[in-house]
Structures
1.
Amino acid sequence: MTDSKFDEGMAARRRVLGDEYVDRAFAGVDSFNREFQETVTEYCWGGVWARSVLTDKQRSLNNLCILSALNRSHEFQTHLRAAIGNGCTLEEIRDTLLQVSVYAGVPAGVEAFRLARAVLDDLGIVPDEVMGGDPA
């Protein structure tokens, strides 16, 4: 492991997910999963998230697409929180999930919207426009 990529990765991971999340992840490190956490930090975060071509906001939207299509609900919720923290608007998130619905299938979109609603509710975020009545 190169220290610089690990250090860059740790900085990116903390910037995107927050200190509390990263501290919690590393509090559970033991001899079984240490190399995994180091690898994730170095390669995912140091090798990709630390790059400057895409913004964190763009990477977050990409992750939402990928994680939705792969049906990785826990990681989707984690990265939805990060996307909001990276400045993604509800409109951008909605359009991203609509694109998932078309390209990855409606069931993937249904699950992504359901998971997103749970995160928004948990964060106390209420969309400014509530639609009522007949959807037709």
2.
Amino acid sequence: MKKNLRIPSQTEKLILAREFVADAAKGFGFAEDDVNNIALAVDEACTNIIKHAYQYAADREIGIVIVMKKPEFEILIEDHGRHFDPNRIPVPDMKEYMSHYKRGGLGMYLMKKLMDKVEYSIEPRKNIVRLTKYLH
């Protein structure tokens, strides 16, 4: 089964993405903690798109497609902004990060910790973040 949502590239619209994904994850059978983790990972991915791919342009769109095929719950998040190479992002030193009270910069790290699989692909006219969580 598939579900689709398109939202404007505005941070105040991220609640729509979180609710859309959380409702689907609950219906799929995930426990509340997993539902919250999935919603947070999607929020982080969309925030990165707004900040980096679209550079805060509020007139762009983010596409979210959920593909549900037990035990796999897959979320594809699409944008048409600047390309991104995830391999250029270093793994943060959390001790160092916390000791300096830094803010931001943990989106990739969080997505990888919260989801079972995180993949990026660049296609001719779009970028896709694929987040996967398995129902155990």
3.
Amino acid sequence: MTKPILLLILAFALSESFQLQAQSGVDRDLLAEISKIKAIDNHAHPLKYVPQGEKPDDEYDALPLEAIEAFPLPLRLSPTNPEFIRAWHDLFGYTYNDMTEAHVAELLKTKQRVMGQQGDKFPAWVLDQLNIETMFANRVAMGRGLTSPRFRWVAFDDALICPLNNGAAKRLNKDYAAFYPGEERLLKRYLSDLKLPALPSSLDEYLKQVVTATLERQKQNGAVAVKFEAAYLRWLDFDNPDEPTARATYAEFVKGGEPPASDYKALQDFLFYYIARETGRLGLAVHIHCISGAGGFYRQTGSHPYLLETAFNDPTLRKTNFVVVHGGYPFTKEMGQLLSKPNVYADFSAQTFFTYPRELSDILRNWLESYPDKVLFGTDAFAFGPSVDWGELAWLSNTTARQALAIALTGMMNDGEITRARASELARMVLHDNAARLYGFR
């Protein structure tokens, strides 16, 4: 990071700290220290670099939200949120305090100029502005500018647990109907990558030739974790596998026909547990989307973190590390209790734009007072479009997270729970060290 950029970040942090101090009693020196920590972002959807005139990036998510009907956005995610003006100031030197059409058009020209100057280095340039050392890219595949070690791949594997006819699920929920075709296409892509013309006829062959082979290929291509967005496709109640039913269901319906919903669930549960065991063997973490998610037909009750308890308690999965992405919001206290499991972690990505720093600080304090070594920073940065791109979302989440962490730790210091030295240590753990240890980074 260049010296002018670092000075800009510090100046912003100090100016923000005076406002926060007045509002919430945050320790301004602690906030300045937290602003300088190089972070590991556990969850995001960065876009690859695409030169002007080329096809836009379409591999940033296995389940892009464009597939479903439009739905109301939370307040802070509105493209008209004035907080994005501050993001434009910091990232691109925007000199206005409004969002008029003419000024935004000028901003877009500036962004194109910066992207053109940086080229393939543009994604890493965005991280430099935010003091993020490494960002985990949840993508179908990586691309230009998204290279290790600045970007680490998290592969999508819901497609592997949905090998049969998904008609029943599509009829059940309009969002499911829009999302399942994406998983079906992805499974065909995985088969093509493995040079398989069709699904194997037996479950054992499917496990060996498709599931294990895909996981090993993802590991070989640099993945550090696999991601399940299953809450957009079904409930997260992955029960103890019923292997006989799973085998019978696959054998009967692999060539066609629609399996009964309960039998298909048994197969999906069996496949989830198999994948979890294999990822543990391969040294990959399992990331699970768990939050009150997007979409007008999203089943919030189906993504309660307690639904994952059976899997977390399974003795055969104790060598697999699970990361609950988004921390189960709004069921964050329940999530805090699940952190008692030896192989369960949580990040607070997306909470960083669903909530403001004050509310997020209460959540972080609850977690830090019990299991501080299990808490991970994340932004869930993704793109809305040219003006509010993934960099702006990363800025909003990054700023909110550091402010919230400072508020939480200040409160713990003021209440005599921790020393200033311990507050600094906890900040480094949340923003960097916990993730570095979990994923084996040096």
